[in-house]
């Protein structure tokens, strides 16, 4: 399988192709937030949208203004109502989360809800040493300060995902 890097930061397009060729596509629907850009080489969803998928792309402060990315500040309190507002299917194919802060808390709220993504991509805090269990304190007004205070450790996300059979 050879898929060239097109839009995603680390060439995730090839991974998407491999995963969905092996597990199948349910709806061809992606939810991507912090999706601030589609054209700068940092989009986890543009490749799939170009392949004909539908989706919901949101960002609190998108760096590109267009009709595709919805400007929404995402919190634990509003994520399910945003899914409802934009008619996200209850079972969809791909969830991509990169909001540089409350990622863990928002993902936990989604997993507790009736929404069920097949595949989850989630940024974790790579500054936290391997094996440590750390989660940023929840703050619904948090914005990234361009420092290493954001998100949670890989281990924290792993435990959360396993709790919901991922």
Secondary-structure content class: alpha/beta
Largest sheet: 5 strands, parallel
Shape: globular
Arithmetic mean of pLDDT: 89
Low-confidence regions? none
Question: What separation lies between the terminal Cα atoms?
Answer: 25 Å
Oligomer: single chain
Question: How much β-strand is present in the residues?
Answer: 15-25%
- The number of helical segments is 5
The total strand number stands at 5
As a percent range, the share of helical residues equals 25-40%
Strand order of the largest sheet: 3-2-1-4-5
SSE topology string: HEHEEHEHEH
Radius of gyration over alpha carbons?
15 Å
Quick structural gist:
The protein has 166 residues and is of the alpha/beta class.
Description:
- The protein is an alpha/beta fold.
- It contains five helices and five strands; from the N terminus they run αβαββαβαβα.
- It has helices at about 10-25, 45-50, 80-85, 105-110, 155-165, and strands spanning about 30-35, 55-60, 70, 90-95, 115-120.
- It has a five-stranded parallel sheet, with helices on one face.
- The longest helix has 12 residues, at about 10-25.
- The model has no long low-confidence stretch (mean pLDDT about 90).
